[in-house]
Batch of 3 targets.
Target 1
Amino acid sequence: MTDLGFERPRFFDGERLTAQDLLAAQGYERELRWLHNRTLHPWGVGRGLTVSGTRGEGSVTVGAGYALDCLGRDIIVAQDTVLQVPAVPTGTYLLTVSWADDDEPPAIRRSGLCGTEGVVRLSEQGLVRWQDPKATEANARFTAGQDVVLAEVKVSGCALAATPDTSRRDDAAVDRPYVGAGATVVGETPWRLWPDDSSPRGVATTVSTASAAFVTAPRYQASVIGERTFRARDGSAAVADGPVSLAAPTASSVEVRVELMSIGELNPPEVLDPSFPDRLRGELGWHVTWIGVEA
């Protein structure tokens, strides 16, 4: 797959299928799943992969589990795995799990016709290993996101110097904020006097944020965009502007208010006339850009 380009294998009656055709069908489904994973799911440990060990012991046990790396690849550890502590006098290591290339796990081979032979089963077992965070060799270098951290371990005298530290564990279940943003349409944003026509202090509009599909009311920020200068009734230049505030936030909307205090050329009395919101929408093109962050 390159640049989101997929070729979906298709077959027809009577077609002579080769191993490459069948591998292409598998590859299409795998690449599509990886794209789904990295687009819609956070990477890290999704289930299991617990780490246990006691100070003074020479090994740790990694429980069975499942994780995703930052490329969306599935990392499976099918059964509990025991790792010997690195045989060094002293040091600090990361215990990680990574996606294993097809040439790394044990494979099952089978003989074919005409003296051929090939691999017919590949293990999906993830690569559980110790990594030195200071290593620079290409085959040993720690790569954040592709090597999922399970614990940090201090070694002394070829044994655990302390219980494995899981505070650095890459956990996919950690809450991450969801961000949505949008804008109202220029010339179609329905402004009204606020708080009401009888004693207005400014203007307001209710902005729909339904396109973001928030589940709960997020924290909103908003800006009012548009022309501020206009020609007053007496022909003089005037300015309409004021502080923006937000009210009544919900998962699908928020009210945007602009207080129009009259000071000299700023906000002459006519900005609070019932007809002025129509000038804001049309002539001045006032509209709203917004962003919401849902925890």
Target 2
Amino acid sequence: MGVLFYCLARRHGHVYFLPDWLPLNQSAPALFGALGDQLPTFIHVYAFILLTVGVAAASIARLTFICLAWLALDSLLEVAQMDAPARWIAAHAPEWFSRIPFLENTAGYFLSGTFDPLDLASIAAGSLAAYLTVHISQGWLQDEQRA
């Protein structure tokens, strides 16, 4: 779902991991309207929580920890896109990062990123949505209501 979003809504050359020919939208990302800017942060945290829960065979306690851990990590990555932290991270990224795929873009990620408080809200909403998705799908909510 996330890759599809990037193909449909992100402008050519604005997504690190997609080849230049793949994005279908060559102009401003208007397909998703006002949600277009916050939808990726929602999708990222939601998907990573679901993947982690699936791999970890999470209990309710683990689910809470997983959701809080991804909320904290994604929020930290968002805050680190502010000017001062971004410049510090870019200046201190180790030279050997340049030889490792994805790590090679560390400085560019933070320097090109844009901090947005609404992204923090969408990260929180994605974390809560993932928590509720797993909680309800596992029947934990029904079990608690019966008790």
Target 3
Amino acid sequence: MTVRSKKTEHHEGKASREVPIFSELRPFLEEAWEQAEVGQEYVITRYRGNANLRTQLQKIIKRAGVTPWPKLWQNLRASRATELAGVFPGHVASAFLGHSERVAQKHYWQVTDEDFKKRAQNTTQQAHARGGIGSQVPTSRGQQAPGFPGDALSCHVLQNQQVAREGFEPPTKGL
């Protein structure tokens, strides 16, 4: 699908870009194609020119029984940019939307509730895979705890040790 850009058309090679037709959008575009008159160039014809799309979108949102949110178009764009970045590499997701990765990171990509859920699920799965808390194999005094480097000692070496008044670190003169 060709997307024309008035905002960037003054830059060489930036007047338009090719964007894949995503599966979520395809049925609506196919329906518009079926309804289009022979030879029609544009899919959306009603709001061509200087239409106030923000006002139209607000009306549609209110009719749907939803409270309009701030920055309607930017938030929709940010949601899609975030979705695409979750599926495609950043440079590809950014190219689809017509901006750089730097702009995407600064203005569009978001951390979602799903990201937190996935992280929490991964943490839980990792704990179960390790046997959960308290699954460490006990060691006898002086023996290396499993899974630690050779010079690591188990914690019991520090148990019942007195800490000097200055703490664990030796005093430093001149401070």
